[in-house]
């Protein structure tokens, strides 16, 4: 179990660390909404969401179960914040890709006509159409980054005991976006280098975004994720397999992508909190 240096809610008995970024949502004695005050008779001794159980980061099943329950409850109690942005960004990405495809056929029309009277393969036609489709896909990627970063930001609000707003869920903070960009570059470079290094990097950096939402700068968030994975390798691998299994099942229906992306983000944030030694508060009800 690793204690995050950006922990705004230290484990019981541990001194409160100074937050150099002013990100402490529990400053001045504030408690998450719906959670019992520390030390009160109603406070659960261990476990997530007020349920007794093993201490965070000490039991594989308890940590995975707590992460899954947190992701489920956070989404069910904040459907607008976690689902509507995905619909909006999904429609915009679809428009970009379809628009690029139509533009490709329009620009390739003269080449298609010329190819009808030629015996040579119409390579120019394919390059024009597929090139513009690829450009449309690249242009839609920032939309996906905005969506995922917004889900991370909204998830941090839920963890802090607050209800995320629609605006918060639409795009993350600059720190989250910069961390996401750095992680994406590292993973892409790894994928180019014989693919396997990219897969390893994606696992090692899986918790950089939750760390950045807690207040870590991009490089510090990457270091913290690496340390967390190294010290909790079995839990992290099993969590990655759970995400892969859920994604495989959900991938059969395109519409489920609107749910699976924020669910995955919330699950990773829940696991990050547990492995950092923190209880997961019950998401605020409407």
Automatic annotation (TrEMBL):
UniProt region (Disordered), positions on chain: 1-58
Transmembrane segments: 80-107, 127-147, 176-209, 233-266
Keyword terms of this UniProt record: Membrane, Transmembrane, Transmembrane helix
Top-rank taxon, per record: Bacteria
Bias (Low complexity): 27-58
The protein's name in its UniProt record: Glycerophosphoryl diester phosphodiesterase membrane domain-containing protein
Organism name: Brachybacterium conglomeratum
